[in-house]
Design brief:
This protein has 423 residues and is of the alpha+beta class. Strand 4 and strand 5 form a beta hairpin. Helix 14 packs antiparallel against helix 15. The chain is elongated, with a radius of gyration of 31 Å. It starts with a helix and ends with a helix. 21% of the residues are buried.
Length: 423
Amino acid sequence: MIPRFIVFLVGNLVGKKMLTINFYLSSKENKKGERQIILRIRSHGFDLGLPHRVKKDDWVQKDQRLRKSAPLREQKNLYLQCLETELKHLHIECIQKNEPFDKNLILKRIALLNPSKSISVLALFEKFIAYKAPLNASLASYKSTLEYLKEFNARHRVLSFADMTYKTFEALRFFFGSKDLSQSTIAGKFRDIKAFLRWCEEIEEIRVQQGYKKFKVRWEEVNHLALNINELRAIEQADFSSDARLNNARNLFLLQCYTGLRRSDLKQLVEKVSEMRPDEKGNYSIFLTQQKTKDVVYVPLITPALAILKGELHDISDQRYNEYIKEVCKCAGLIQNFTLKRHRGNKVEQDTREMYEHITSHTARRTFATLAIHYYKISEVDAMKLTGHRTINAFRAYVKQSLFTQTSNEWVEAWDRKNKSKK
């Protein structure tokens, strides 16, 4: 038989760690017939009015929640659930730190969850963009995401940090899908939102519902266009001696294929030609700060790239560049049909046109990554250092795996040469 004093001691210790929270309605009604929801913590003698009011007929005292037919039931019930969870966590923290669990502390936590008094999600997202401005060039993506969130907030449901649940993210996914966005674009929007919420937790010290962390969107697998070695050679060998406009565009495009730079970084390279100096072995290279990520990348310059930079070369607008590239590739004979596939919502779209019509400045960067791996047999780690990709998955999205078959003849010949030499 357990002694009474032990039962009494255990009971006290458990009692200190347990916090009983109740909600009930005030007896007073306003002109609309609504009553204020009262928070009661009987063990501490607290009765605190909350910012929500409901009608008596919409309240179920047994459940201490709004009934299913009540207006804004889901939002208000979620608020009560979040508040109860927050205060219980706060109570445990106070016990662990041996700090008082007092009324002022509770009022601060209530104010944090009060949507009318706390900073709104949208306002804080704008602050997040301003914070990221000097550090990251993904501002266009963040601003685009904010505009979508504003529309979602106005038309569907008010966003709050207490409502960042899996269910909310599912609603956002459905909303993004209704905007005819591709799966990759939708995944990018959720990447921006998650980065924002992590920033809120780490920098602004705002407690956010953790349901969003379990939400994942698969990146779209698209048959991106990248040129094989024969198609690249065709562009190199095309004769534009009588057309300075296309010759200049061809050289800019080849320079991207030789370096793997983005269009925005290619402009830097052209401007910094005078800064190039050879190393001890006579090789040329240059360090550039990527405009998109602000990372510094090392750009080694192979012989044909160096020859282009030392010749006559001038930059042009992005629009004209993409227009001229298509002309260049058409003249080079890249006129075979090519089908691009992409997912939009639940649909798979196929766009079949002659290859040159699909080619843009970004095709060059994909060509560099693909040939580096499949033709020149550079390791993924080394290739990532040249392209500036931070993760292996992001890099692999640039590499067209199917091109292995297109370069298989070169690989077989190389294998035969190596093995015949051993005999």
